Amino acid sequence: MWDWRATAAGNKVFVSIFQWPNGSISLPAMKAHITRACLLAEPHHLSLKFSQSGNGIQVQLPANAADPVASVLVLETRS
Q1: Is the C-alpha dihedral spanning 41, 57, 7, 71 positive or negative?
Q2: What is the pLDDT of residues 5-23, one digit of tens each?
Q3: What does the alpha-carbon distance between residue 53 and residue 57 come to, in Å, rounded to a whole number?
Q4: What is the pLDDT of residues 47-69, one digit of tens each?
Q5: Is 29 in a helix, a strand, or coil?
Q6: Longest Cα pair distance anywhere in the chain, in angstroms?
Q7: How many other C-beta atoms lie within 10 A of the C-beta of residue 8?
Q8: Which helix H or strand E contains 33, and what residues bound it?
């Protein structure tokens, strides 16, 4: 079982994280160029640090989940 699921709408990928990782999350590579990452439940949608390569995506997360059941990470993209 995966600890996350993803869906996309327009230029955004929404990653629902069910088990909060320690420090960061690693996601598979994607063709679209990521321009921004943030948490949907964070009131000011502050940007998170991330890196993207042909091997995958690494997003630095805060210590605590925004939601105890599922926190949503938003990846904004540019094709």
Answers
A1: negative
A2: 999 999 999 999 999 999 9
A3: 6
A4: 999 999 999 999 999 999 989 89
A5: coil
A6: 32
A7: 13
A8: strand 33-39
Q: Compute φ and ψ for 35, nearest 5 degrees.
A: -105, -20
In the chain the first and final C-alpha atoms are separated, in Å, by 29
Residue 56 structure tokens: 């995958």
Domains of the chain and CATH, by start: 4-78 (2.60.40.1180)
Q: How many residues does the chain have?
A: 79
**Torsion region of 56: left, alpha or beta (phi above 0 gives left; psi -120 to 50 gives alpha):** left
**Which residue do the tokens 């094709």 mark?**
79
**pTM of the model as a whole:** 0.92
